[in-house]
Write a structure and sequence with these properties.
Length: about 210
């Protein structure tokens, strides 16, 4: 099980979260987001992959940001086409394509993206493209028809730990590659509580998840 900490903003906080050794750290490059990142990413350990989050951005804008910040991957939260995903893959980016779920989802809509992205990310459908702070009905994933690994996102926090552990034991979680953590661990927008994150990670480890 991998961990991704997303919505980072503050340099000192970024460095403190990096000490927890997450697999991924996410930086939002969507100007309408309250967690929009417009600073410089500090030097991070090589094993932490830096992921840029975008919403309906152009290929040139995305690749410009990737090159500027030396990102290892992109997370696409909008209505990005399979063609754009393929372009980004061909430019040596790891591509995470996001799909929003509430109570139902048509998994046939994933088919055009099967060969042009590396991971899916399932988030909660809400007013914003992401960061809505609540979970979706994970039982919807019983109908997941792909074998592509996915990130589980949307309102995951300490209070959901028991439900999360139960979900991870079920067959529909077999392709769950990573947990995406954000708003439920914040003391302020973009500012993560490292004690809460460490406690959450320790609980996963105590339940035999190698995070």
């Amino acid at each position: 099980m991998k961990l991704k900490i997303c919505g980072m903003k503050n340099e000192n906080n970024i460095l403190n979260v990096a000490k927890l050794n997450p697999d991924y750290m996410g930086f939002i490059f969507y100007k309408n987001s309250p967690r929009y990142f417009k600073s410089v990413i500090p030097e991070l350990p090589k094993n932490i992959k830096k992921i840029g989050v975008f919403v309906d951005a152009t290929f040139d804008y995305i690749t410009g940001i990737v090159n500027k910040h030396n990102l290892q991957g992109v997370q696409l939260h909008g209505n990005e086409s399979p063609e754009l995903c393929k372009q980004l893959q061909d430019s040596n980016c790891t591509v995470i394509k996001v799909f929003s779920i509430k109570n139902t989802f048509n998994f046939n809509s994933l088919e055009p993206y099967e060969d042009v992205c590396d991971y899916y990310l399932f988030d909660t459908k809400g007013k914003q493209p992401g960061g809505n702070g609540f979970t979706f009905d994970w039982s919807v994933l019983k109908k997941y028809s792909s074998i592509k690994p996915f990130f589980l996102s949307g309102g995951i926090g300490p209070h959901e730990l028991d439900n999360l552990l139960s979900f991870l034991k079920r067959p529909e979680a077999i392709f769950c590659h990573a947990l995406d953590l954000n708003s439920k661990f914040e003391t302020n927008l973009g500012l993560k509580n490292t004690d809460k994150l460490k406690a959450f990670k320790d609980q996963l480890i105590a339940n035999n998840y190698d995070v």
